Amino acid sequence: MTAPVRADVHVRLAAGTTTRDYERRLREMSGVVGAQVVVGDFDLTVRVACDDDAHLRGTMARLRQAGAQDLAAELIVRTLLG
Fold it and tell me: Is 11 within 8 Å of 43 (Cβ atoms)?
């Protein structure tokens, strides 16, 4: 059995999408295990844990459909703390 694919996905919301609406949509998505509102180039960082690469691609597609204008993913290879 392979380890799950974990990633932090940085999300820039599309015009007209509120953080509150996006949060509501995130709560309904499989694979999403956490999210934070951030300040900088992106609006949120979403932590995902997926079964495999295909599940990650599907999750990324759902994040975009939920109201993201731009996404950038960073795969997690090892957790040091937490």
Answer: yes
Helix (H) or strand (E) holding 56: helix 53-65
Measure the CA–CA gap between 45 and 69, rounded to whole angstroms. Answer: 14
Cβ-contact 64, 23 below 8 angstroms: no
Q: Which of 61, 67, 57 is nearest to 75 (CA)?
A: 57
Task: State how far the alpha carbon of 32 is from the alpha carbons of 7, 16, 20, 56, in Å.
Answer: 10, 22, 16, 10
SS3 23: helix
Q: d(Cα 44, Cα 82) in Å, to the nearest integer?
A: 20
37-51 pLDDT, tens digit per residue, is 999 999 999 999 999
Phi, psi (degrees; rounded to nearest 5) at 80: -90, -45
User: pTM for this one?
Assistant: 0.91
